[in-house]
Amino acid sequence: MLKRRSNFALCSLIPLAPMDQANIISGFSLTPNFPDHDPCFGNGNTSTLCQLPSPAMINFLNITTPDLYLLHYCANPPNDSCAFGYCSNPDVASPAVRYSTYFTSVVSAILVLYSPEELGSTFAAQILNVYSLIVAAMIAIAKHNLTKLHSVMALTLAASPLSIYLVVYVFRTIFGSHTRLDKVFGNGQYLNRSLVILLVPLWVGILSFTALPSSVWQFAQAACDSISAHNDVPGYFIIPFLICFAVFPIEAGTITGVFFLAWATAIFRLRGKIWQRQNRLFPLLGRMWRQPIDHYPFLRFCTVILGPHVIWILNTEVGLITLSPREVFSPTYGQLLAIFVTVSPFIALCMLLPRMVRWFINLTWVRFLTCRRNEHLFSEVPDEESGLPLNAGQKYEPGGSEEKYDTTSSHA
To answer: Which UniProt keywords apply (predicted)?
Structure first.
């Protein structure tokens, strides 16, 4: 009896929860009256008071494929990890950006060489393309949002052979030479000159940043610079052309040998004009360049346009595929802009095609293969400025271009 009383007294000293009190009052029977549940409890509640997971979090929690995981990983990749290599950057290295840059550069270079009077519209397209790459790269570098790989990629695309030609022509114009690009860089064209000259310090600035160590300036995914690129990202965009001689020695050696053999043959056939004593208009090296390209237009085309652009495109594509093979097209603003930039060069190329066809048919090696070595299919006199046949109805004026252009330079 004493034990039962002590237990009752002990229980009376312990504070009881409301539910326990209800159970005691109801004679230890369970009550169906539960406390009100949380307003966000349950899947069907759409109250604005509930802090439901965001769609991004739901998608992240529902990752079921490696592609989805890589997509979320590359949304904000860590700087100290390179588990998946470099993440793609479609605004800099997608196929749309690369191919539009290649097309614009090649077509504009053809216009510079063969139809400089039509370069005005394509010049704006080329400048827009180059500055869109450089400015976007500079902003991303300043925010540490661009990898060193894509910085070098933007620099490589911007420093095309055409861009180098434009810089050379601007400086020649500034120093008083008359060139085929006087319409673009001649007297009063200060804006065009400034836009081209400004490219040089911008190129040097981006290249300087890519050479800085990670302790001074950190790019995005800095770990990949040492793991994937072995601390030599620029080298991957320079070495590929040289590697071709090791990987494909026969093919590369044959092409190089044919190129130098063509130049040697042209110089030998024109040796009488190159080494004329009374010809003091050109120095010896100038005549060795001018005479072959004037007599063999295809040799000039291969030396000035085809060769440099093939090397440039080969280095860019091989370097990118080696370090970042996941670059694909996606409909972003930068890629759509790159596609629209090609409209003006495409129209200019279509207008030039009829003259290019006649130019090709009258090439020396084409006439040799078609058994008409000593005859021309078209009787139009070629334009001395471009080497192309004149347009229908255009009048040929002998010596008209000799006074306009400074032909003493190899770039005229």
So the answer is: Membrane, Transmembrane, Transmembrane helix
Contact 149, 233 (CB under 8 A): yes
pTM recorded for the entire structure: 0.73
Residue 75, amino acid:
A
User: Taking the domains of the chain in order of start, what are their residue ranges?
Assistant: 90-369
- Tokens 């109801």 map to which residue? 26
Residue 337 near residue 132, CB atoms below 8 Å: yes
* Cα–Cα separations (whole angstroms), residue 123 to 118, 140, 170: 9, 26, 13
Q: What CA–CA distance (Å, rounded) separates 347 from 331?
A: 24
The CA angle 96-98-100, to the nearest 5 degrees, is 65
- Asked if residue 41 has pLDDT above 70, the reply is no
**Site of tokens 């050379």:** 168
In sequence order, which residues have a C-beta less than 8 Å from that of residue 228 and are 6 or more positions away? 82, 85, 86, 323
Nearby residues of 366 by Cβ (< 8 Å), 6 or more positions away: 360
139 or 280: whose pLDDT is higher? Answer: 139
- Neighbouring CB atoms inside 10 A of 344's CB total 20
Q: Which residues contact 284 (CB under 8 A, 6 or more apart)?
A: 274, 275
What does the H/E/C string look like for 233-287? CHHHHCCHHHHHHHHCHHHHHHHHHHHHHHHHHHHHHCHHHHCCCCCCCCCHHHH
First to last CA, the chain: 123
pLDDT band at 401 (very low <50, low <70, confident <90, very high): very low
